[in-house]
Specification:
The complex is a heterodimer of chains A (150) and B (206). Chain A has 150 residues and is mainly beta. Chain A has no helices and 11 strands. In chain B, the strands form 5 sheets. Chain B has a 4-stranded mixed sheet, with no helix packed on it. The chains are: A mainly beta (150), B mainly beta (206).
């Protein structure tokens, strides 16, 4: 696989000019990297194989708390895992990661929707301080289904 | 594609004839938490629906200190508009100098004297405004394909919503690449134990 495209999406409360001095320090960003199949000889268009996602939550940590997952199938909801807090032993779920589900789901979800116009990243989660959870749903980015630059 | 066809459907248990507000936030400038109620859906009863169009482009207009409003001009990313004094009076025109950022639209007050208000519109409705721009100042606008939606009371289209109202609206719907979709509202109902209002997308056409 080869990483070809990277895209970053930010929540609506994201402050591009820097963090707040206190919590919530900032919003949340999702960095997505599309992985395409290897080059072939003779050259053919490379197909989208998977999308790597890093969900970084800055609510309670000015450096961000990351959760990583990989989407390999289309039209399947993938849970956004709560990352471990490795500063304690044994590691526990990191309580500074505020991303949870909507509609009674414990975990937030992301999926890839394959269409003729490309593969869209679809999100469904809430995040932020308990006093003000923000819901995020819908489509945030698109990757080509194949890379024609052979 | 220059517009998204949206269809609001009320599947909630609301018994207060609540209004639903939809708005956007200008990401180009830090306005604090102020926004304009772009669309307010009223009297949409249970199982009623309310179709509407969400344009991806917006228009700009300016008003001067004499209370004159310029015609709406369609704005494209990277464009800038100058409010100038012509032989006919104050007019807003496309500038030959583009906006500083290719993703933003600027409205500049190039009058010798007199403040202006810079206004953005979608579907003919006020979307955002920046008031009291002194000569030499500019307003910068950028909107992402994202709407904020929530249940409010006593708000009218075109009104400024303060931070207290905005803090009640915590649902963001991302519309990147969408051609049409239903926005379904659920939840609500009588009693303190009723669930919060929730919004989901259905019948999505990308």
């Amino acid at each position: 696989m080869e990483n070809i495209e990277e895209s970053t999406w930010y929540t609506g409360d994201w402050r591009p000019d820097g963090n707040n001095p206190q919590a919530p320090y900032n919003g949340l960003k999702i960095v997505a990297t599309a992985n395409y199949s290897e080059k072939t000889n003779p050259p053919t268009a490379r197909k989208l194989v998977s999308v790597d996602l890093e969900v970084v939550d800055y609510t309670y940590n000015p450096n961000g708390v990351s959760s990583s997952l990989q989407l390999t199938k289309s039209a399947v909801w993938y849970a956004i895992p709560i990352p471990p807090d490795t500063t304690v032993s044994p590691p526990e779920p990191n309580m500074q990661f505020t991303v949870v589900g909507v509609g009674g789901n414990l975990l937030g979800h992301i999926r890839l929707d394959d269409t003729p116009r490309g593969s869209f990243v679809n999100i469904q989660f809430s995040y932020g301080p308990t006093s003000r959870k923000r819901e995020e749903i819908g489509y945030i980015m698109r990757f080509p289904n194949q890379d024609d630059t052979i | 594609m220059d517009r998204i066809r949206l269809n609001f459907i009320n599947r909630s248990n609301d018994t207060n004839n609540s209004s639903v507000v939809i708005f956007q936030q200008n990401v180009a400038e830090d306005f604090g938490e102020l926004a304009i109620a772009w669309k307010v859906i009223e009297n949409c009863g249970r199982l009623d629906n309310h179709p509407f169009v969400f344009p991806l482009l917006f228009s700009v207009s300016a008003s001067d200190s004499y209370g004159n409003y310029t015609p709406l001009l369609t704005a494209y990313d990277g464009q800038a508009f100058d409010m100038i004094k012509s032989t006919s009076g104050d007019i807003l025109q496309l500038s030959s100098t583009p906006a500083t950022s290719p993703t933003e639209v600027e409205v500049r007050n190039q009058l010798i004297q007199g403040a202006i208000n810079a206004n953005c519109y979608k579907d003919g409705k006020l979307l955002a405004t920046k008031t009291r721009l002194a000569p030499g100042q500019k307003a910068v606008f950028e909107f992402q394909p994202r709407i904020y939606i929530g249940v409010v009371s006593q708000i009218r289209e075109g009104e400024v919503m303060n931070s207290a109202i905005i803090s009640q609206i915590n649902s963001e719907i991302n519309l990147f690449g969408i051609i049409s979709a239903d926005i379904v509202m659920t939840g609500g109902g009588p009693g303190k134990s009723s669930p919060a209002f929730s919004f989901t997308l259905e019948n999505i056409n990308k």
